[in-house]
TrEMBL record:
<dbReference type="InterPro" id="IPR029069">
    <property type="entry name" value="HotDog_dom_sf"/>
</dbReference>
<dbReference type="InterPro" id="IPR050563">
    <property type="entry name" value="4-hydroxybenzoyl-CoA_TE"/>
</dbReference>
<dbReference type="InterPro" id="IPR006684">
    <property type="entry name" value="YbgC/YbaW"/>
</dbReference>
<comment type="similarity">
    <text>Belongs to the 4-hydroxybenzoyl-CoA thioesterase family.</text>
</comment>
<dbReference type="GO" id="GO:0016787">
    <property type="term" value="F:hydrolase activity"/>
</dbReference>
<keyword id="KW-0378">Hydrolase</keyword>
<dbReference type="Pfam" id="PF13279">
    <property type="entry name" value="4HBT_2"/>
</dbReference>
<protein>
    <submittedName>
        <fullName>Acyl-CoA thioesterase</fullName>
        <ecNumber>3.1.2.-</ecNumber>
    </submittedName>
</protein>
């Protein structure tokens, strides 16, 4: 499942160099992941009901083109791989001219809400990767 979130660069996201601050890209990616979870019907409340939280443990980002105030950006998110307790989402940030501004591989771990320890990726999340579930 691939999602796309459209945003507009705000004045508060610009640094002294006149472009989007590098840390803001990480925030944009987070918004894109939230959109992906929601589109997959895995809202925070749904995950909480399953007794699981997802925790970002690694982000490998490439900054490719600067973004400026007022630009319309598209953040795409799609699954790359899923293991026993971790999974990787590929994300890209595109400008309205169709230029790739940043791309990232984001690794997250499924964490048991009660024990705060890693746990198997729940079937409800695993299905978004096109993987067979335990009950299948």
């Amino acid at each position: 499942m691939k999602t796309s979130l459209e945003i507009v660069v705000r004045p508060t996201e610009i640094d002294v160099n006149g472009h989007v601050n590098n840390a803001k890209y990480l925030e944009y990616l987070e918004w894109g992941r939230e959109e992906w979870y929601e589109a997959g019907q895995l809202s925070y409340d749904m995950l909480k009901a399953l007794g699981v939280q997802t925790v970002t443990v690694n982000i490998n980002i490439n900054y490719r083109k600067e973004c400026r105030q007022g630009e319309r950006l598209s953040i795409t998110t799609e699954p790359q791989s899923v293991g026993r307790s971790s999974f990787v989402l590929m994300q890209q940030i595109w400008n309205e001219a169709g230029e790739l501004c940043a791309d990232a591989a984001v690794t997250s771990v499924a964490m048991d809400s009660a024990t705060r320890k890693s746990r198997p990726v729940p079937d409800e999340l695993r299905r978004l990767f096109g993987q067979p579930t335990a009950g299948a």
